[in-house]
Amino acid sequence: MRYLISLALLLAVLWLAISGVYKPIILILGAGSVVLVVWLSRRMDVVGIEHNPALYSWRLPLYWGWLVWQIVLANLQIARRILSPDMGLEQRVLRVPLKHRSDVARVTYAQSITLTPGTVTLRMEGDELEVHALTPEAREGLESGEMSRKVKWLEGDR
Amino acid sequence: MTAVLVITTLAVFATMAMALIRALKGPTIYDRIVAVNVFGTKTVLVVALITYVTGHADLIDVALVYALINFIAVVTVLKLVKERDLAAGGDEEPGGD
Amino acid sequence: MLVDIISWICLISGGVVAMIGGIGLLRFPDFYARLHAAGVTDTLVALLIVLGLALQSGISMLTIKLFLILLFLLFTAPTATHALARAALADNVRPEGTDSGSSEKTRGETSSNT
């Protein structure tokens, strides 16, 4: 119940912030959509999922900054491959060990791999990820395990 | 300023044209869906750019909603292609947890 | 003035990277390679164009909405890519560079699934 109320409040604030029109009829429609979304998330059994402490770490913004930088670097590599005449692709499917305890960290790692161009997560099998790598550089970057360590750091010692 | 915005918009339009060519050429259905996905995300950016070209701040809401609809549309089309049934149960993820 | 110039650089390079991604989508040889080209246009282009536009309007409602769009795109793009790769894999579209053992396994998984 507490989660239902906090979710409704959060949605109401979001709605008020991005609506910008405060006539009675629009407000009623907004309240209606808040109720609808709360009812739907209850039906989907996802209420309270946002109250995961892993989502509110001070490390998260730092991780995002680092990730954006990695994305820029990876993009430049792939862009160079696209423009070079012979492309020099070397596609491989790798298995990467997954060393993270919590589901949030596992999903974060898998999503981060997919988000950096050059590597795409294909499957998660137990304690391994199956990753498709496009270029040798992408493969080496993944095998160095730097991103895995960063996510481990993000998981922290809670 | 407007010139820069228009040039960027045209460049994104060119990308959308290339995505359409890929969508028409295929060869597999998944190539087409990738192309349509790129087309959709570029549409979001074009709408955002047009907001600034025309100065109608309301248009940004269109981009916001399109960003959400595009994702749901792609996942829905994938499900339709894979299951041939939009009402299929949620057991299509073996091995993933 | 300086902000304007940075904004222009962001926007123009966003357009250029978008076109490079489009060329990649056309040039790359198979489905999995094209996924990476699509990833280029989904991530860096969105970042650059949103950054360029946000610098134009400063701190305002418009900028907040722009960053909401960027957030949605960055969260949904890898999910859609992953869903596509998985669906293609389950449909026996094989990536280059896989050994036959793993493809046997996939086939088994697919048949037990359907």
Describe the secondary structure blueprint for this structure:
The complex is a heterotrimer of chains A (158), B (97) and C (114).
Chain A: H1 2-19, H2 24-43, H3 59-83, E1 92-97, H4 103-115, E2 119-125, E3 128-133, H5 136-143, H6 146-155
Antiparallel strand pairs in A: 1-3, 2-3
Helix pairs in contact in A: 1-2, 4-6
Chain B: H1 2-25, H2 29-54, H3 59-83
Helix pairs in contact in B: 1-2, 2-3
Chain C: H1 2-27, H2 31-57, H3 61-90, H4 100-113
Helix pairs in contact in C: 1-2, 2-3
Give short descriptive properties of this protein.
heterotrimer; B: about 100 residues; mainly alpha; 3 helices; about 75% helix; flat; disordered C terminus; C: about 110 residues
Short précis:
Chain A has 158 residues and is α+β, with helices and mostly antiparallel strands.
Explain what you see.
- The complex is a heterotrimer of chains A (158), B (97) and C (114).
- Chain A folds into 2 domains: 42 residues; 97 residues, no CATH class.
- Helix content of chain A is 59%, strand content 12%.
- Chain A is built from 6 helices and 3 strands; from the N terminus they run αααβαββαα.
- In chain A, a hairpin with a 2-residue loop joins strand 2 and strand 3.
- In chain A, helix 4 runs antiparallel to helix 6.
- The two termini of chain A are 26 Å apart.
- The mean pLDDT of chain A is 81.
- Chain B is flat.
- Chain B starts with a helix and ends in a 14-residue tail after the last helix.
- Chain C is an all-alpha fold.
- Classes of the chains: A alpha+beta (158), B mainly alpha (97), C mainly alpha (114).
- Chains in contact: A-B, A-C, B-C.
- At the A-B interface, strand 2 of A face loops of B.
